[in-house]
Structures are given as structure tokens and as C-alpha cells.
Design brief:
Blueprint lengths: L12 E3 L8 H7 L9 H18 L5 E4 L3 H12 L5 E5 L3 H12 L3 E5 L13 H10 L5 E7 L1 E2 L4 E2 L2 H10 L5 E5 L18 E5 L11 E5 L1 H7 L11 H8 L10 H15 L5 H23 L2 E2 L11 E5 L6 H12 L1 E5 L8 E5 L6 H17 L8 H11 L11
Helix pairs in contact: 1-9, 2-9, 5-6, 10-12, 10-13, 11-12, 12-13
Keywords: Aminotransferase, Pyridoxal phosphate, Transferase
Protein name: Aminotransferase class V-fold PLP-dependent enzyme
GO molecular function: alanine-glyoxylate transaminase activity; L-serine-pyruvate transaminase activity
Length: 409
């Protein structure tokens, strides 16, 4: 048997920005026996999770659930709406925007990559005015879709999706709006219908607090209509059969039954009115993010996203001083303090590390993570301006959570 639980004592601190820790409550739900995916019990489960995930996306339209990673849902979004050779406008905010652009090329599309030059473009959210300017110049409406990342996991920048929608509308352009909210959903405010998104892509392993393995396409009527004439090859990813069978709670192939048990439990947790429902979830993440960044500021280190309004409630990227290898710091922290941090990716590899503050965590989880970071930074010879741990303690103590824990019996 493969040995996976190799941490000698206590819990490993998984503070990467996804996969995020899975709550015991969800693990217990997933341990239920697998049932017949054509039987009546499964149909009831299917309808329950489909209703719950619509509430999470804040949509009244279909949400397609795939037994796949977020990358699969990227492909599904493009394959169902585009035809070979279609021109798509994609905005570069970081590594994951870059990977989506690479996929579009491999699928036979013609992506145009828009964004600010160099590493500077990886320090901000989407600049919607650049999209508006480009679409206004597209007099023949050759651009069929605009693709943006809501929460760029590689940099910690959250983009204003409503501003992108307004930019498309201001240009009077018919392009579809496709959004990756793989790391944003259920952590950062997201309104699929109200923001006029045509396809939202997401995954299970971030704010939904599940293991990797299921992903989503939230659809608009415009996207469903576009899928009727889209010519890119698709079979497994095709929306039509899935949407039709989902009406009775079933799938046209074998779904991931036990992860759907977990998804049902996650929806119950996230929508629980006692803890403020989705708005309570978003408020918790904003507060955690502010506490962590208070600590980083006290260290005298830079945050990767330097546009304050775009700084993510999901994660914080911490830039190392010139000459310090961020991966070496991460390695030391992992080996000494059993704490996993996110690595820098693409253009910022070796220059920064990422602290996840999403999903199943609390103030003390983050205090432990910051303590591990501070000890590791000092051991690595990084000169700090002050104690980020003390600053974060002061923040969390002075800014109590808006919703208290349930009282004991």
C-alpha cells in the first residue's frame, strides 16, 4: 500500500491556493456507499446538487457538472461555443490565462492575447478599457468570444467581471463572455447572471472545499444558442445531452457519485443561513485576506498584486527580495514546519510564493501559516521590517468575525 499520510504528528498545513483542505464533514459525506447512477436515489441526489450549484453560481440557468478537472471545463467552454479558426480575445493576467490561451491554440482557434507588457501585466486584474478599445476596433465582429480569468491563482489578482461585461456592451459587440472562476467561485463574490457571463468555468478543489475531480460550466441562454451552430468537435463535453438528462437528475455517462455526495454537503455548508450564506462566505474571505496582507506589510515585503482593488480574497502572492530564491524558502518552510505554500509559476517562478486563505480555515489556521512563514523567512536570511505575526494577531483580535460560532448546548 502506498504511504501517503507521512506527517508524524498533527495536521499538515496545506496553505496552497488549491487544492484546499477538505473538511471532515465533507469527507464523511463522500464515504457513503456508491449507489446505482440510474436508480431513484441518484436522481434525487442529482437534482439536489444541480439546484445547490446554481445557487453558488447565482444563476437560474443550467450548470453542467463534469467528472473532470478545471482544464476539462476550459475545453468544454470553448468546444461548445466555437468553430475551427474562430478569433477569440483572451486577456493575460497570469499563468492560468496563459494556459487557457495555449489550449485555444491547440483546439484550432485563433486567440489574440491582450494585456499589459512583461511581469507588470501579472500584477493587476483585467484592464477592461483595453478590451473595450479592441472590440470597438473590430468593425467586422470577427472576435467571437472574450475570455478572462476572474481570480488569477498564480498572482492573487481578482478581476472586475462586471466591468468586462460593460466594456463589451459599450463596444456594442456580440462576442460571448467566457470566464474562468476556478479559484474564485465560493470564495470571491461572483454573479453569473447579473454580470452577464455566458459561460463560467469552475472546479471542485478550491472554494467548494472538495478534492479535485469535478468541474463546471455555468451557461447562459446565449451560450446554449451558440452551441447549436458551434463546429469544434465534441462528444464527452457536449452540453445538449447533459442538459437534457439533468432535467431528471441524471447524466448521459457515469458521473462521479461520491464527489457529488461531497458537493451536496459543500452546498449545504456554503449556503447555511446561520453563517450568513454566500455573503457570509465572501465576508470571511475578505477578512482573512486583509489579516494575511497586514502581516505581509509588516514584514516589509511586496504583494504580487499591486492594484489594491484587485487583491484577491483567496490568496496572497509574496514577492521575495532580489537575490532570494522563493522556492528555496518554501522548501525550508515545508521541511521545518510541515507547511505547504504555493510556488511561483511562469514569469514569477522563483520570485514569489503564495499563501492560500480559502475554504476550510480560520483565524488560527492563518496565524499558524504566518508563523511558519515568518520563521522560515528569518531562517532563510530574509531581512524583515517587523513581525507579521504580531501585526496579524492584532488585526484578527481587533476585527472580530461578524458571525459568532454556534453556542454550545
Amino acid at each position: 500500500m502506498v504511504t501517503l499520510d507521512f506527517h508524524p504528528t498533527g495536521r499538515h498545513f496545506l496553505q496552497i491556493p488549491g487544492p484546499s483542505p477538505v473538511p471532515d464533514r465533507i469527507l464523511r459525506a463522500m464515504s457513503m456507499p456508491t449507489i446505482d447512477h440510474r436508480g431513484p436515489e441518484f436522481g434525487a441526489l442529482g437534482l439536489r446538487v444541480l439546484k445547490g450549484i446554481q445557487q453558488i453560481f447565482q444563476t437560474k440557468h443550467p450548470v453542467v457538472i463534469y467528472p473532470a478537472s478545471g482544464t476539462g471545463a476550459w475545453e468544454a467552454a470553448l468546444a461548445n461555443t466555437m468553430s475551427p479558426g474562430d478569433h477569440v480575445l483572451m486577456y493575460e493576467t497570469g499563468h492560468f490565462a496563459t494556459l487557457w490561451q495555449k489550449m485555444a491554440t491547440r483546439l484550432g482557434l485563433k486567440p489574440e492575447f491582450l494585456g499589459l507588457p512583461g511581469v507588470e501585466g501579472w500584477r493587476k486584474g483585467v484592464q477592461a478599457h483595453l478590451i473595450e478599445e479592441r472590440l470597438k476596433a473590430d468593425k467586422e465582429h470577427s472576435i467571437k468570444a472574450v475570455c478572462v480569468v476572474h481570480n488569477e491563482t498564480s498572482t492573487g489578482a481578482t478581476s472586475n467581471i462586471l466591468a468586462v461585461r460593460k466594456a463589451i456592451d459599450a463596444a456594442r459587440h456580440p462576442a460571448l463572455l467566457l470566464v474562468d472562476s476556478i479559484s474564485g467561485l465560493a470564495s470571491a463574490e461572483y454573479k453569473h447572471d447579473e454580470w452577464g457571463v455566458d459561460v463560467t468555468v469552475s472546479g471542485s478543489q478550491k472554494g467548494l472545499m472538495l478534492p479535485p475531480g469535478i468541474s463546471f460550466n455555468a451557461l447562459s441562454p446565449k451560450a446554449l444558442e451558440a452551441s447549436k451552430s458551434a463546429k469544434l468537435p465534441k462528444a464527452f463535453w457536449a452540453w445538449d445531452e447533459i442538459v437534457e438528462m439533468n432535467k431528471t437528475g441524471y447524466w448521459p455517462y457515469t458521473p462521479n457519485t461520491n464527489l457529488l455526495y461531497g458537493l451536496a454537503e459543500a452546498c449545504d455548508m456554503l449556503l447555511d443561513p446561520h453563517f450568513g450564506g454566500l455573503q457570509g462566505v465572501f465576508a470571511r474571505h475578505r477578512r482573512w485576506a486583509e489579516g494575511v496582507r497586514t502581516g505581509v506589510k509588516a514584514w516589509g515585503l511586496e504583494v504580487q498584486c499591486n492594484e489594491v482593488a484587485s487583491q484577491s480574497p483567496v490568496l496572497t502572492g509574496v514577492i521575495m527580495p532580489e537575490g532570494v530564491d522563493a522556492d528555496a524558502v518554501r522548501k525550508l518552510i515545508y521541511e521545518r514546519f510541515d507547511l505547504s505554500l504555493g510556488t511561483g509559476l511562469g514569469k514569477v517562478k522563483g520570485r514569489m510564493f503564495r499563501i492560500g486563505h480559502l475554504g476550510d480555515c480560520n483565524d488560527l489556521t492563518l496565524m499558524a501559516a504566518l508563523s511558519g512563514c515568518e520563521m522560515g523567512l528569518k531562517l532563510s536570511g530574509v531581512r524583515l521590517s517587523g513581525s507579521g505575526v504580531a501585526a496579524a494577531m492584532e488585526f484578527f483580535a481587533g476585527h472580530p468575525a461578524p458571525l459568532a460560532l454556534q453556542k454550545a448546548a
